[in-house]
Amino acid sequence: MIRFFRYTILCMLSCLTLLSCIEDQDFDQFDEIGVTPTVEASILYVEAPESLVNASTQANVISQEFNFDAFSSNVFSKRVLDGTITYIVENTTESELSVSIELLDVDGNVLDTVIIPVAPAPMEMQQVDVAYGSSGRSIDIIKNTSSIRVEAVNISGTQSASTAAEPKVILKSSGKFRLEIVQ
Amino acid sequence: MRIPLTLTIVLFWTCFTMFGQNKQLLYDFVEIPQSAMVNPGVDTDFQWYAGVPMLSGVSLQAGLSGISVNDIFSNDGLDINDKIRDRAIYGMNARDELSGTFQIEILNFGFRGKNPDNFYTAGMYIEGDAIGYWFQDYAILGFEGNADKLNQAFDLGHLKTRGELMNVFHVGLNKKIDNELTIGVRGKIYSSIFDFNSTKNKGTFITKEGVNNIYSSTVEADMQLRTSGLNGLKDASDDGTLGSTITKRAFFGGNLGVGVDLGFTYQLSDQLVFTGSLLDLGFIYHSKDIKNYTLNGKATIEGIEIILPDAAADPNEDFWQELVDDVEGFVPFNDNTDSYVAFRPTKLYSSLRYNFGEHVDNRANCACGVNASSNRARAKYVNSAGGQLYVINRPRGPQVALSGFYQRRFGNFMSVKTTYTIDKFSYSNVGLGVSIQAGPVNMYAMADNLLSYGNLADSNYASFQLGLNIISWGKK
Fold first, then answer.
1. What confidence tens digit (pLDDT) does each residue in B48-84 have?
2. Residue stretches of chain A with pLDDT short of 50
3. Of A45, A75, B265, B402, which one is least surrounded by beta carbons within 10 A?
4. Best mutation target, A21, A31, A42, to test chain B (most B CBs within 10 A)
5. What confidence tier does B13 reach under pLDDT thresholds 50, 70, 90?
């Protein structure tokens, strides 16, 4: 009986196989699947009021290092292909400033520096885009960045007496990176 | 945040091993004893039957709506990444699914009681069932990212899946009330081997223009994945005791549940028959080997925020770690071992059958005849045609399938049934089932969606069922 059953199944499967067709499929295409999403998010926001600018004439308004492990974490550094960091500086004080942003590795070595001269108010919002990867600076800078140092110097050496409401210097930044999830 | 291995395994299973459940060919195919499994109130005329262990009922069904293998892997010269983007990511929607089920009967038998109006059935079968809906917004996010998608809310509720593997013990009674009505009830005990479900997720991820910084990223999540039995199976696999662990759980050693099947057959006239059944009205209480994961809360971040001069008060302050801690605090990823109840996917069948043509002699021990006033088993007609309705309760609401069928009987030797079914998987599903009776040996085989055999790779649905039984109608 079992044998009869087996033969019947075999017969049925054989018939189905003979009657069935399959169009030409190319499963090697699987190797060509590339999942490379582009992600973007804010990185750092620094805000210094006019009083701090005036208190630091001819000196650093700010000079501070911030730990930032997002870039060097494995989930990011092993997948990042290229990208751009965007810096935007807004100044509503009457002091001329120089803002520098340094990307540092885990040992404190400077990997990259971006200097943004900032005119006194009224000024246009100043935007700097720094590309990394194939069309820009080495992507290894990003992969090894462990902290960010921000310095702002009051190079005009003058006291600001802005009539604007809450005059301040603001640094905004965001990153837009392409990641390789599957290749 | 490290995603546990178990979660990864579940998601992998969800993505690649999902399977519909409709047995439209078997339903009301009264020549086959297993038709009682989809309608305990089927109008049966057997004196007794016994399924050949492990071979009496084997069924496998798999369905994929919205896309087919051919859509992606056809050798058409197009870039596969373009095909994935156009046909899968944006071509499918969150209601599309990959789903399926399998059943293997280990034991199945039935016999007529001293009261010939009562027919008893009992048995045991293994069932696996899973469904995963297309997680569209996750796919968009994973394939394209969130860049240049300001104000687009990604729906975290698109993750909706469930699956289970269990052994089912059942005992049923089929009772002929009168010449018109036959009813049936079957009690079930579910012995779960494993279970997972993540079906009530809510939340969004959205990137907007920031209040202070350039962008703000907001995640609002109310998500949960409940599992039972998976960790124990992984441990058993590591220990080389997987087989014994599964066997133990299959025989009341795991989480248990109860359920009931109900059904009826009503003879509207000599030739017109109305049937219905409600299957797997039950639940499993999961209290052993539980591991649940939750992600619940809301957080909005705009990167590290330094407001001077206050932020400079502590030069050693780690703003990055504070940001990470804040996010994990506002949207904590937790796990627990809380017990839970999982309801079975309840199924509803109904049919209207019109019998016509010549009569087929009934093999049952009765004074059978179409006009007999008190038949235990009615004489059959050569032809039957009608329509069937199938509804299954799924995480995104009921799924419906409509079938038209024609059945032809060739004496008592062979019966053939063909169906045409419309459901979310296909509008051209033609199925064929054959039951052969060679003496006491009954054998049946059924296959679905036959038109898709022209190009199997372009098929959205496939199923087969087969089985072997010994049947007796008693002495005439």
1. 999 988 888 888 888 888 888 888 888 888 999 999 9
2. none
3. A75
4. A42
5. very low
Nearest CB to A16: which of B143, B301, B453? Answer: B453
155-174 of A, contacting B, C-beta below 8 A: 170, 172-174
Q: Where does A23-167 show beta strands of DSSP type E?
A: 38-49, 60-67, 80-91, 97-104, 110-118, 126-132, 147-154
pLDDT digits 0-9 by tens, B370-422: 444 444 556 789 999 999 999 998 888 898 999 999 999 998 889 999 999 99
Contact B73 A38 (CB under 8 A): no
Asked if B367 has any chain A CB less than 8 Å from its own CB, the reply is: no
Domain housing A133: 43-179
Residue A122 lies in a domain: yes
The encoded tokens of residue B16 equal: 């690649």
Q: Record the tokens describing residue B460, joined without a space.
A: 């959205």
Amino acid identity of residue A9, one-letter, is I
The pLDDT of residue B422 is 92
Strand, coil or helix: what is B209?
strand
| Nearest by CB: B142 against A40, A88, A181 | A181
CATH 1.10.3470 fits B5-472, yes or no: no
Counting Cα atoms < 13 Å in the Cβ hemisphere of A54 gives: 12
At B156, which amino acid appears?
L
Please tell me the total count of domains within chain A. Answer: 1
Contact B456 A67 (CB under 8 A): no
Nearest CA in chain B to A41: B215
The string of pLDDT tens digits covering residues B101-120 is 899 999 999 999 999 999 99
Residue A34 lies in a domain: no
CATH of residue A138's domain is: 2.60.120
Give the SS3 label for residue B16. Answer: helix
In a domain, A137, yes or no: yes
